[in-house]
Amino acid sequence: MTRMKRGRGMAASWYGIARTATIDRAGAWAELDDGGTAKVVTGVTEIGEGILTVLAQIAADELGIKPQDVTIGDNDTARSPEAAHAGATRQTYMIGNSVALASREAQKALFEQIAEHWDVPFESLRAFDGEIWALDTNLRMSMSDAVATCKKRGVVPVGAASFTAHGTGLDPVDGSGSPWQAYVFGTQVAEVEVDTWTGEVQVLGIWAAHDVGRAINPRGVEGQIEGGVVQGLGQALMEDYQTDKGHAITHGFAKYILPTSLDIPQINCTIVEDPDPKSPLRAKGIGEPALVPTAPAIMNAIYDAIGVRIKSLPATPEKILKALRDHVPGREHIAQAAREARAQAARTNSANA
Predict the structure, then answer these.
(1) From residue 36, how far is each of 22, 32, 75, 89, 151 by CA, in Å?
(2) SS3 of the chain
(3) Catalytic residues
């Protein structure tokens, strides 16, 4: 048998966002300040996924200013609107939509005053990159001047909003219904090389395509996909957390092995944008869904390479070698013949006795 075997495997996944069986909601405030800058306040929790950058981008896009001119304010839940937990891939979907709606309210307050000041229709106003203007006119001013004009008219351009998933509930009898408002879909392909002498697996490449609704920050989306793939690779091949009678017996990273830069293959990301009709931003999410198909794709690739299905994670070299030994071609026929020979010998000995 050839020592090195290569194979490819594919896995597809779906992931629900914004629970509807129970209420999921988030709130935010947005205010255009002197100087044409903005402040956004919400109870968001940044845990490393880049949500503060995304919220600044959302507010800037809605208000017509630059992202660097947006400040995400104090997120102490004693003084800011509720945003709920940082999990379930809901941050962009729930909090991002609440920030977008609050920013639209703030811009509406500003536009109403500027429309009256210029005596133009509200619908003709546009704002972008720190400037505001009226279509089909020569009227134009900086956002800082617009805010000053608004305040001179006795109005502070501020908005507040909340975004709530449409609660549908589940059937109390059979539990049927739609538990999530939006669904994220993804597919990944893995290529592996398996050393049949040692049982070691090397992942040569991962191709990942994920529907995110709308990519607010494409580079951030790619980073989330790559991070999910790395986690999935560790889950598939290395990370082995063991317990004995409910107590951990894996006491350190020397035994619970994590992927390093030397273990990471080329990761090829494809962002699919199928806008969510129930989201003001048309965005969905990508945080946790990127992890879901990785391990199944790798396991399918191992099966394609060696013709043996590994049914528990991680697929360690020891498991692969044992599976190869247990599935030698013809082994089952030989074992069955041996059982039949022993049974015949037993019958013969019984007759002779």
Answers:
(1) 39, 6, 22, 32, 12
(2) CCCEEEEEEEEEEEEEEEECCCCCEEEEEEEECHHHCEEEECCCCCCCCCHHHHHHHHHHHHHCCCHHHEEECCCCCCCCCCCCCCCCCCHHHHHHHHHHHHHHHHHHHHHHHHHHHHCCCHHHEEEECCEEEECCCCCEEEHHHHHHHHHHCCCCCEEEEEEECCCCCCCCCCCCCCCEEEEEEEEEEEEEEEECCCCCEEEEEEEEEEECCCCCCHHHHHHHHHHHHHHHHHHHHCCCCCEECCEECCCCCCCCCCCCHHHCCEEEEEEECCCCCCCCCCCCCCCCHHHCCHHHHHHHHHHHHHCCCCCCCCCCHHHHHHHHHHCCCCHHHHHHHHHHHHHHHHHHHHHHC
(3) 288
Distance CA 55, CA 107 (A): 16
Residue 334 forms part of a structural domain: no
Stretch 335-353: mean pLDDT, rounded?
67
- Identify the domain boundary among 164, 193, 221: 164
Q: How many residues does this entry show for the chain?
A: 353
CA torsion 311-313-314-316 (nearest 10°) is: -30
pTM of the predicted model as reported, rounded to 2 decimal places: 0.84
Instruction: Identify the residue with better confidence: 334 or 206.
Output: 206
Domain of residue 187, residue span = 4-16+180-326
**Tally of structural domains, the chain:** 2
106 and 199 both lie in a single domain: no
Q: How far apart are CA 125 and CA 107, in angstroms?
A: 10
Query: Are 188 and 304 within one domain?
Result: yes
One domain for residues 73 and 12: no
Q: Is the pLDDT of residue 2 over 90?
A: no
Residues 6+ apart with CB under 8 A from 155: 109, 112, 113
**Average pLDDT for the chain:** 90
